[in-house]
Design a protein that fits this description.
Helix content of chain A: 25-40%
CATH architecture of the largest domain in chain A: 3-Layer(aba) Sandwich
Strand content of chain A: 15-25%
CATH superfamily of the largest domain in chain A: Zn peptidases
Largest interface: A-B, 57 and 57 residues
CATH class of the largest domain in chain A: Alpha Beta
Shape of chain A: elongated
Number of domains of chain A: 2
Order of helices and strands of chain A: HHEEEHEHHHEHEEEHEEEEHEEHEHEH
Distance between the termini of chain A: 13 Å
Radius of gyration of chain A: 24 Å
Largest sheet of chain A: 9 strands, mixed
Oligomer: homodimer
């Protein structure tokens, strides 16, 4: 249906903007590279016959009218900013896929009831200010002037200052907010960034929700001792306690079938090969697309960890570093994606998004859903990030039929 | 029996030699401080009426003749060198306790069949050259000229060079070796360096053997992945594998009732809070006084670890960093210590020595045994190292009756 060659060519061409010596792309928000990428996308929107505009947050839109201009629009898109030395697909696939869908409709003279807009959101990644989803927050009316003043880049430049340099007025960012009921649905095409679809042998999949992470830091205080002179029964070994808790985390997260629990950081003291570690700190990243499930897993982990430490005579402290609400995808959009998958003979495999996306911000504004495209070895945020031309086209075709379905087309 | 006040005074006085601003003592081998400590001990030996000499390795001896000069001597002692900023008890208690025993015999006119010698061994700790038990190795005929040339201190000074500066001829170190059959038994009084006796509420205890450590380094290679986007079932998490192995180590060591297994070092990569660790390395210090038990525990740990890693799709490598044979204490000496404990109303509680001692080197030369004295909080190698005057006296009394028993006295 859609033109897979054109989509692929645009993905490659856009990837040249901000290309690094190390092989990846760096397009930080409110920089010349992001500007150039948006300009390039705007030119593709022109080619697709869309009316192009930018809002007060720098979000770039291409709009195609429907039969009824008063109906809320169907929104598709993603972002064109990147992490440092990132890949060609994370973001651009959703933006260029959206343009491709609308250009295909234009070329085939397909009409829809609802207007359709494709959007390139400003700064999803958060690489510059350690505060991402700026454009989608603004669209959802969730961005405050405090946020714009508070977060700064490595050079001490605030988001507000960067916006001014870019030609935007941070005082007017509220104008980017869309009123409730003005968006019928949001659909995003994105690479999976995991290995589920590769494992299932499927080019694309149906996202059930965007997981919300809880980040905790455990601090265990046991008793340092001589590794030779302290019998096992007299120990208060904080690493042994941590091991038991880490196994518990794995078991509790696995038991749900949907949650993921990861210990990515661990440090211990004093660190001598013949000294029982008295002090251990480790992190926990716990996610689920269902907040209730996630909170129950967290509760069980904490309850059992307290018991483990009590039994071992080890003091435990837990600090919360971050707590974001998960965003379930809407039935409306998931159903449309499922039908679109089946139309292409793709078994509609449902999977959660563990990584965050702009859709998280929009979940309160409108029905939201995502289509994932198979990602080689699950690698992302790297020059190694890769999805095949065929899979990108397959995902874009699923997007086409999903959007047509939601916009009342055909 | 023995003079606890005199023993305590000498412990305190000796502790002034090499006293640091940080509060501890530093007496490294072949330094002015070790020389001064040996000279001080020699003066106490004089007071005790012993004949004093030093051997080719710098070991200091005080000898009291028995009724039969041809009989092998009973050897008691320890060392007077220390770690950097160490305590007053680790080493000196055994040397000064030995002198106290012989001085008490002298004062009471007690005769023994066997001659008795008290020894202050050269460099037990290994703090200067990272190669300890120099004097006891020499006595056991286990010190080579390669050893003396190979090991160097921080300033690049070899043991051989340090010996020459000290007035010893490294070429003649072999002369320090005692012939087989020339020592009836070796007994050492030492602080426990653990919490067993404190826990048992006993001033002294009966050592069953000196554990031999095996030091291993595990290297686990799993798969790095996004903490949100990788379902639990598709992970090859090397830290989760390490946790399971660490729990296994604890369980297998505990199951024996005698072995101790400690993971004192652990590092992981890449170390992001939201990244599954692909690579983990950790150490294992495994000890038992019975080599067969230790080797079986090691075998079970390795077999099960291989299975854990196979099941998880994680590659495991294991490197051996050190492997020392344990030294069981002899029945002869343990029986004598047990009888001596009972004479003082001390329940003869048997416990292993997890830390290494000079007796390890002598185990091949003669029957060997040790008496432990209760150590506050198990702390050693620190200015906080502490045993009470009463416990030191109690341990010394046990030593007195043990030595009298072994030397055929009374």
């Amino acid at each position: 249906m859609i033109d897979g060659e054109r989509l692929w060519r645009r993905l490659s061409d856009l990837g040249e903007i901000g290309r690094q010596r190390e092989g990846g792309v760096t397009r930080l928000s409110f920089t010349d590279e992001e500007r150039a990428a948006k300009d390039r996308v705007a030119s593709y929107m022109d080619e697709a016959g869309l009316s192009v505009r930018e809002d007060a947050a720098g979000n770039l839109f291409g709009r195609r009218e429907g039969r009824n201009a008063d109906l809320p629009s169907v929104l598709v898109g993603s972002h064109v900013d990147s992490v440092y030395n990132g890949g060609d697909f994370d973001g651009p696939l959703g933006v260029l896929g959206g343009v491709e869908v609308l250009q295909t409709m234009q070329e085939r003279g397909v009409e829809t009831d609802h207007p359709i807009e494709v959007v390139a959101f400003t700064d999803e990644e958060g690489a510059r200010f350690s505060f991402g989803m700026i454009g989608s927050r603004a669209l959802a009316g969730r961005l405050t002037s405090e946020d714009l003043a508070k977060y700064e880049d490595r050079d001490g430049v605030s988001i507000a200052e960067a916006m001014r340099t870019y030609g935007l007025d941070p005082e007017r960012v509220g104008e980017a907010a869309r009123p409730e009921g003005s968006v019928k649905a949001y659909v995003e095409l994105h690479i999976e960034q995991g290995r589920v679809l590769e494992n299932e042998g499927l080019p694309a999949g149906l996202v059930t929700g965007i997981a919300g992470p809880v980040w905790l830091r455990f601090s265990l205080e046991g008793e340092t001792g001589h590794a030779g002179a302290t019998p096992m029964s007299l120990r208060h070994d904080s690493l042994a306690a941590a091991s038991e808790i880490m196994s518990l985390i794995e078991a509790e997260a696995s038991a749900t079938g949907t949650s993921v629990g990861t210990v990515g950081q661990l440090s211990l003291e004093p660190g001598g090969i013949n000294i029982i570690p008295g002090h251990v700190e480790f992190s926990l990243d716990l996610r689920d697309i269902d907040q209730g499930v996630r909170d129950r897993v967290e509760g069980r982990i904490l309850d059992e960890a307290v018991e483990i430490c009590r039994r071992r005579g080890v003091e435990m402290g837990v600090e919360t570093l971050q707590r974001l609400a998960p965003a379930p995808c809407s039935e409306l959009v998931m159903d449309a994606i499922g039908r679109a998958c089946e139309r292409f003979g793709i078994r509609p495999h449902a999977l959660p998004s563990g990584a965050g996306h702009d859709g998280m911000q929009l979940a309160g504004l409108c029905p939201m859903g995502m289509i994932f495209v198979r990602s080689r070895a699950g690698v992302s945020h790297s020059p190694e990030e890769w999805s095949t031309k065929k899979d990108c086209a397959a995902g874009c075709n699923v997007l086409y039929w999903t959007v047509l379905d939601l916009a009342g087309g055909g």
